[in-house]
């Protein structure tokens, strides 16, 4: 008698079906992982852009060189100096800085006091909400500045920014202004 050993056709079909199901499950797991990684990378990029914008605004706020600031619904104008050395001597000239919201894009424009050249920097796209307020201890928070007669001689004490953009809703930051503190 000649007995052959091997798999039956039914056993082979079942083995192929199990292998196909394992392959499909592995592919779905891989695809889900790649999509999640892409979503995290996109969110991280948006967060980095937002952090960069807030860092630029903070740097300007911390170097305000004049109590004369002009604040409107979509603009903020200020004069800033650059960082100081350990002996508290200025290192370079002052700049006019203008923040402007145009067509849901936040722009920063700057120029030296003696320079006609304006540098325009696109800070952030797709801005849904952007508001500025300045704090004065006598009048409180104000969305326009200067407030009242002679207010330009009294410096504000703090700057508030509320920002909604892309994935982030109502991010609020408050920075103390150096001119507002004795």
UniProtKB/TrEMBL annotation:
SUPFAM superfamilies assigned to the protein according to its UniProt record, in alphabetical order: Pili subunits (SSF54523)
PROSITE patterns: PROKAR_NTER_METHYL (PS00409)
Pfam family, one: T2SSJ
Domain of life: Bacteria
Keyword Acetylation: no
Gene3D superfamilies: GSPII I/J protein-like (3.10.610.10), gspk-gspi-gspj complex like domains (2.10.70.20)
ATP-binding listed as a keyword: no
Alphabetized UniProt keyword annotations: Cell inner membrane, Cell membrane, Membrane, Methylation, Transmembrane, Transmembrane helix
Membrane protein topology class: Single-pass membrane protein
Cellular compartment(s): Cell inner membrane
Any one annotated GO CC term: plasma membrane
GO BP annotation list: protein secretion by the type II secretion system
InterPro entries, alphabetized: N_methyl_site, Pilin-like, T2SS_protein-GspJ, T2SS_protein_J
Protein family membership: Belongs to the GSP J family.
Protein name: Type II secretion system protein J
UniProt lineage: Bacteria, Pseudomonadati, Pseudomonadota, Gammaproteobacteria, Pseudomonadales
């Amino acid at each position: 008698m000649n007995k052959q050993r091997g798999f039956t056709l039914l056993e082979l079909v079942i083995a192929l079906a199990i292998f196909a199901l394992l392959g499909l499950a592995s592919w779905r797991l891989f695809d889900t992982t790649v999509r999640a990684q892409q979503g995290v990378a996109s969110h991280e990029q948006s967060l980095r852009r937002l952090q960069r914008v807030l860092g630029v605004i903070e740097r300007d706020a911390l170097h305000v060189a004049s109590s004369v600031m002009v604040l409107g619904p979509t603009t903020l104008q200020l004069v800033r100096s650059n960082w100081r050395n350990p002996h508290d001597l200025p290192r370079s000239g002052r700049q006019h800085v203008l923040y402007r919201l145009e067509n849901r894009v936040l722009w920063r424009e700057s120029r030296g006091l003696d320079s006609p050249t304006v540098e325009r920097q696109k800070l952030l796209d797709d801005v849904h909400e952007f508001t500025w307020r300045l704090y004065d201890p006598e009048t409180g928070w104000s969305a326009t500045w200067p407030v009242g007669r002679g207010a330009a001689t009294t410096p504000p004490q703090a700057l508030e920014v509320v920002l909604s953009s892309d994935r982030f809703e109502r991010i609020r930051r408050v920075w103390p202004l150096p001119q507002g503190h004795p």
